[in-house]
Design a protein that fits this description.
The protein has 194 residues and is mainly alpha-helical. It is built from eleven helices and no strands. It starts with a helix and ends with a helix. The mean pLDDT is 96.
Length: 194
């Protein structure tokens, strides 16, 4: 799951939205670095990532990728999942997507303490370029993966993933509708045990 899904899950679980976005930019024990609610959000994000990576359905989806791209297929699928969530947003949230994004931005930007520069830069781009709304368009998958491949040479194989996602688009879309409700239930269970 990428930014949109993590915000959606945070909203569904009443978890700290900025904490859920910070997780990819923070190393180590967040409870030594952030207030409790923010650290809980970071931990929820990490739980979601580990949960989805271990799902049999996701492991099956990763087999749709070529041998060369399989190492980065999890990242590519995260972008695809956000696309399917945005595309089918009314099935998963009562607010219209633009309204949700606007509210999420207000909540995220309220927290400004101890933010890594890489997080600040990414968030600035995300809000200004309206990535979360652009996820509704299938072409955004290609754009996002090609940009990531350019920025991070170790992930250059991401540029070869859009054609594979296009090839298996319908199958991945069906899998998303099987996978995402399970992720929602798992996050609720996780949060209830915190």
């Amino acid at each position: 799951m990428n930014f949109l899904a993590h915000l959606h899950l945070a909203d569904r679980c009443c978890s700290h939205m900025a904490g859920n976005l910070l997780a990819d930019f923070v190393r180590g024990d967040p409870y030594h670095q952030y207030p409790l609610a923010v650290a809980d959000g970071i931990k929820l994000h990490r739980f979601v990532d580990s949960y989805i990576d271990a799902m049999p359905e996701v492991l099956q989806c990763r087999q749709l990728f070529t041998k060369d791209t399989r190492r980065v297929s999890g990242i590519a699928l995260d972008i695809a999942w956000d696309h399917f969530l945005a595309k089918h947003w009314p099935l998963y949230h009562p607010l219209a997507l633009p309204d949700f994004v606007s509210q999420a931005r207000q909540q995220v930007e309220q927290y400004q303490d101890n933010l890594p520069d890489s997080y600040r830069l990414t968030m600035s781009r995300m809000w200004q370029q309206q990535w979360l709304l652009q996820y509704r368009e299938q072409d955004t998958i290609t754009t996002a993966l090609e940009r990531m491949a350019l920025r991070r040479p170790k992930l250059h194989q991401l540029a070869n993933c859009p054609v594979l996602i296009d090839r298996h688009y319908n199958s991945l879309e069906q899998q998303f509708h099987a996978i995402y409700p399970q992720v929602i239930r798992a996050t609720h269970t996780y949060r209830s045990q915190q």
